[in-house]
Structure formats: structure tokens, C-alpha cells
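Slide 14.
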Amino acid sequence: EMKSSDWPDLDLPDAEVLILNFSATSYCLPPFLQSMKNLKVLVVANHGSNRAELDRLSVKSHHRLSRSILSFLS
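Slide 15: predicted structure.
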């Protein structure tokens, strides 16, 4: 399980692409997404063998992403 408080406090305002790989059954997107003003592509990949619950997906809803990719690998 990954919670919001488990993330380090990163400052990545110029990043345009973020790739997140996880294998937990419960996963929370990082709070620092809110400060990534230039983010254009977000890739979230679940490498676990079970389905995962993704929390805080709407955190970027007020920003314009060129592309979001959710990958579910078995």
C-alpha cells in the first residue's frame, strides 16, 4: 500500500514527463503533482499481479496534460 505521506517532498516544476511504476494493491499519486506546472505526460504502470486501487487521480484535473497513460501489466 502506498499513501500520500509515503512520498518524499520533491520539487519538479520544469518536468514535462513523469513515469510512475508500482506493484501495490493500493496506490496514491504523489502530492507534488500539483506543483508540476509543465507536466504534459503522466504514465502510471501497475506491475503487480493484482488489480490496484488508484487514489488522487483527479489531482491533475485542473492542469492540461497532453497525454495520460494507465498501464495494467500482468
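Speaker note: Residues 4-72 form one domain.
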